[in-house]
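Hi support team,

I'm filing this because I wasn't sure whether my run with 2-acetamido-2-deoxy-beta-D-glucopyranose finished correctly. The job status page said complete, but I'd like someone to confirm that the output block is well-formed before I use it downstream. Pasting the exact inputs I used:
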Amino acid sequence: MRLLVYAILLVHTSFLNKKVTSLDDDTDFFENQTVNNTNSIIVKTIVVDQFGIGNFKTVQQAVDSIPSNNKEWIKIRIRNGIYNEMVTILMDKQKIYMEGENPLKTIIQFNQAGDSINDGTFKLFADYFLGVNITFKNTYNNASSRINEMKIAPAALIMGDKAAFFQCIFISLQDTLSDGLGRHYFEKCYIEGAVDFIWGAGQSIYHKCVIHVSGQLKELAGDITAQGRNTEDNTSGFVFQKCTIVGSGKAYLGRAYRRYSRVLFSRTYMSNAVVPQGWDAWKYKGQEDHISYTEVNCIGKGANQEGRVKWGNKLSRKQIKFLNNRDTFINQDGWMANIPKVL
Ligand SMILES: *[C@@H]1O[C@H](CO)[C@@H](O)[C@H](O)[C@H]1NC(C)=O
Ligand SMILES: *[C@@H]1O[C@H](CO)[C@@H](O)[C@H](O)[C@H]1NC(C)=O
Ligand SMILES: *[C@@H]1O[C@H](CO)[C@@H](O)[C@H](O)[C@H]1NC(C)=O
Ligand SMILES: *[C@@H]1O[C@H](CO)[C@@H](O)[C@H](O)[C@H]1NC(C)=O
Ligand SMILES: *[C@@H]1O[C@H](CO)[C@@H](O)[C@H](O)[C@H]1NC(C)=O
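And here is everything the job wrote out:
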């Protein structure tokens, strides 16, 4: 049911596509990408099939088969199925392209919680990663009996630089997507949770993603983001372009996990899952000057500015343009040209 909603929303986000002002970075990634770059060639494909009709039965076995210090793109094609395993990609396994058959049916899930690093179902430490059509899930907090003992349970922990995800689904309740460190791009992904469910010091753009605020906390408001920029010259931040925020729970758009927390929502539809105040300074009350939380061209009940905290929306037009553009914010050195074309 929930995932049907996801499919519908992906279609509906097209209503956010209109380019209205020059603040928009309007194109989907592959729309204008003329990929003709030898660095994006896939040299090998490994098939994972849990019924044994591939090269390996588990995703981790496929990862382990890739040589250390790998230099060229290797695709791991995962056939539909529920893979009950943790998958870790260490730093020496660069250039892995992991692709499911169908994001609703290729599922990597695990049930372990309590630690924000070790308990992630999927853990990425290598640079250069491409993920397509996969669900990453941490099932720990799902049991309703566990609400009072909700734990940190990441579905994915992304610590490598230069990672991109297309049509992936991230599901948990607390710390779902640990966008920890490095430059990342998410397009048409679905992210579900209740507490700090997109958090960390990542430097990331979320383009046309669906953000689902879980209703599992009932009337308690959680936080969609907990961005961890800790100094003024730190380049991290989360930028949401043309996203859709829905769900039966309530949440702040963000809480200041670190002193210079930076989050931009641009042309995003916000349902009333977003609380009127919008943002929470958390430990940094009285130091809101350092926090860069901005909304531009957003629509929907949750985007109403009447009840909003007064210290948001401080970024200049120039700063917004810088953040809201792939080439200036995350693709300064052109690494995205090396992303293999997703068919
Ligand atoms: C994308 O391609 C179209 C058609 O070639 C062009 O008009 C437009 O300027 C391009 N946009 C970007 C961001 O490069
Ligand atoms: C891509 O590059 C190759 C080699 O440089 C060239 O032969 C080919 O025509 C190019 N293809 C496109 C679509 O530009
Ligand atoms: C991703 O999943 C969609 C929906 O099942 C499918 O149409 C598409 O071909 C898949 N993409 C790849 C690269 O397998
Ligand atoms: C949670 O558990 C219920 C009942 O077992 C199941 O139907 C549902 O799909 C699960 N949700 C998630 C997010 O795993
Ligand atoms: C930003 O802060 C994070 C978290 O403290 C740190 O690991 C990272 O190196 C910093 N990055 C830059 C570019 O300053």
